[in-house]
């Protein structure tokens, strides 16, 4: 029987042939480019994965007896490690070849394709013109980057084919012995939750409040995003007082404002000076009085820990987090008065643009002042991601105060802490035993439970709460980004995403992991009274690695 060629195909055939011929050489070149990267990546990660397989084999062996009946395994643990090696190597090589990457962490090719498809969302997380208080709603603002796919579906699966979650008793057999490691001290708690359902799969001391250290930032992020929205921006502006020729630099609480020549997508103090100078010249002004306004925040500037390289005095006006070197994260000596320092730099920039000023001093902009110029931060989603990835204490304390401002509370340490708790209560999260004293987790009197931390992560994955998704996307990736860059070399690199927490005698870890069956799980492990921070850190990493390696039926 002869099947006639369909008319639509007959018409399209020449076009398809031309497209195939055009693409074929590019695919050949891409294959040649990827092959060396894949071979090198496979050789690099193979030893680590083999060691991870050996480390978790005893725990997994104990739960084989309770697993549901499955088809006979094709090979051995070595076969599994080899397959994982090839898979991870392929992911690394393809990611390298598929670049370049833009400043938001998205491949430019993906961004171009999404723009061609006219999709919205992504980096600005579905912003719209009805968002109150956001300067990006103005006409001519840039379009948002494209949205990523749902984080709730395992790779290669549709939403209707995800396997069932691990069984509680099997998880307990795997995680229980690991959490009893002496390196984790006398007090330790843990919880594991299936993000897709919110069901708790494992728990030990889930309601016991312990010092959370920097995992507090997860709570701060959820509170800020729920109060202000993912597309909210923080604005630094200048105003001209009528009849006085006084220019006031008004701090809007943007902790990412930078005075560096290359702003990298963050709001630029030099750009603000340029715009302000142009506005003054249009008014015929070339010499003014310069003041700065920090009245947005109240209360003490210094955190209860005092002067510390981990955090600048908390001010609504600062440039580069008051750092005294070119760093963008980590502890470093800070200036003693970030607002005055930023105002002095602003004066220098004005002078370069032909505007002479007095030495700057503190003041307050009145309601009668004329607007001159303004610069705004990237969306709140980007600030949250930077805070979580780098464990940025300055951003954390700023977001706590911004949450207080958004909810009509005092923008102070106490007001920010109260605002965080109030927002989490609105979200009906389990707050029993929780205590907030700051937004960063530097205060040793903070208390959170493993149950609350996993509930926060599950809430961030709720499809009904897309504004909270940056809490998940901002978590450091094991072995690749942020505070996990140098960890998991022998474990679940690229699979675990987690916020770390470290104070003297305290080690915590909370985040997400995709298990062997493709389920996205949230976990939280907290340990107090630890004596060896490196040993405790390694014990937590082994526990998260075992969770990633577990099917646990």
From TrEMBL:
Gene3D superfamilies of this UniProt entry?
Answer: DD-peptidase/beta-lactamase superfamily (3.40.710.10)
| Compositionally biased spans, kind Low complexity | 129-147
Report the EC number(s), separated by commas if there are several. 3.4.16.4
Coiled coil (residue ranges): none
Instruction: Provide the residue span(s) of the region labelled Disordered.
Output: 119-147
Could you confirm whether the keyword Protease appears in this record? yes
User: Which terms does the record give in the GO molecular function aspect?
Assistant: serine-type D-Ala-D-Ala carboxypeptidase activity
Which PANTHER family did the record assign?
Answer: D-ALANYL-D-ALANINE CARBOXYPEPTIDASE, PENICILLIN-SENSITIVE CARBOXYPEPTIDASE A
Family stated for the protein in its record: Belongs to the peptidase S13 family.
**What protein am I looking at?**
D-alanyl-D-alanine carboxypeptidase/D-alanyl-D-alanine-endopeptidase
The organism named in the record is: Streptomyces spinosisporus
Q: What is the lineage of its organism?
A: Bacteria, Bacillati, Actinomycetota, Actinomycetes, Kitasatosporales
């Amino acid at each position: 029987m002869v099947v006639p060629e369909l008319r639509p195909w007959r018409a399209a055939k020449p076009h398809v042939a031309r497209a195939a011929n055009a693409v074929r050489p590019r695919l050949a070149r891409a294959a040649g480019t990827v092959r060396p990267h894949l071979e090198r990546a496979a050789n690099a990660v193979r030893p680590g994965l083999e060691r991870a397989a050996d480390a978790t084999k005893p725990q997994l062996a104990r739960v084989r007896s309770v697993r549901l009946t499955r088809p006979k395994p094709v090979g051995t643990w070595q076969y599994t490690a080899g397959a994982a090696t090839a898979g991870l190597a392929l992911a690394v090589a393809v990611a390298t070849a598929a670049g370049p990457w833009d400043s938001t962490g998205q491949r430019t090719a993906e961004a171009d394709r999404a723009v061609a498809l006219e999709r919205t969302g992504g980096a600005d997380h579905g912003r719209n013109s009805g968002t109150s208080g956001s300067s990006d709603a103005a006409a001519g603002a840039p379009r948002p980057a494209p949205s990523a796919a749902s984080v709730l579906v395992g790779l290669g699966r549709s939403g209707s084919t995800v396997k069932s979650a691990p069984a509680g008793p099997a998880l307990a057999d795997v995680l229980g012995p690991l959490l009893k490691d002496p390196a984790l001290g006398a007090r330790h708690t843990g919880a594991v939750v299936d993000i897709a359902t919110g069901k708790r799969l494992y728990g030990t001391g889930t309601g016991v409040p312990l010092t959370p250290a920097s995992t507090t930032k997860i709570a701060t992020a959820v509170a800020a995003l729920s109060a202000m929205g993912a597309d909210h921006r923080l604005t630094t502006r200048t105003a001209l007082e009528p009849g006085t020729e006084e220019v006031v630099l008004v701090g809007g609480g943007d902790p990412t404002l930078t005075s560096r020549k290359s702003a990298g997508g963050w709001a630029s103090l030099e750009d603000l000076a340029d715009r302000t100078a142009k506005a003054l010249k249009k008014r015929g002004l070339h010499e003014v009085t310069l003041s700065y306004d920090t009245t947005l925040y109240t209360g003490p500037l210094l955190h209860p820990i005092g002067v510390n390289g981990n955090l600048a005095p908390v001010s609504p006006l600062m440039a580069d987090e008051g750092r005294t070197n070119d760093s963008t994260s980590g502890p470093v000596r800070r200036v003693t008065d970030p607002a005055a320092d930023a105002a002095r730099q602003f004066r220098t920039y004005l002078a370069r643009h032909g505007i002479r000023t007095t030495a700057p001093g503190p003041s307050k902009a009145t309601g009668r002042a004329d607007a001159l110029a303004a610069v705004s931060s990237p969306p709140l989603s980007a600030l949250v991601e930077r805070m979580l990835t780098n464990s940025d204490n300055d951003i954390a304390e700023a977001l706590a105060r911004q949450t207080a401002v958004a909810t009509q509370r005092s923008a102070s340490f106490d007001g920010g802490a109260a605002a965080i708790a109030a927002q989490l209560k609105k979200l009906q999260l389990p707050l029993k035993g929780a205590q907030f004293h700051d937004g960063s987790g530097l205060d040793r009197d903070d208390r959170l439970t493993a149950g609350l931390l996993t509930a926060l992560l599950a809430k961030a994955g709720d499809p009904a709460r897309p504004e909270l998704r940056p809490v998940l996307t901002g978590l450091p990736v094991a072995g690749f980004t942020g505070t996990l860059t140098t960890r998991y070399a022998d474990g679940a690199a690229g699979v675990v995403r987690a916020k770390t927490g470290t104070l003297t005698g305290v080690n915590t870890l909370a985040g997400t992991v995709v298990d062997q069956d493709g389920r996205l799980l949230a976990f939280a492990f907290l340990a107090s009274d630890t004596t060896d921070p490196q040993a405790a850190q390694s014990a937590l990493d082994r526990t998260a690695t075992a969770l990633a390696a577990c099917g646990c039926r």
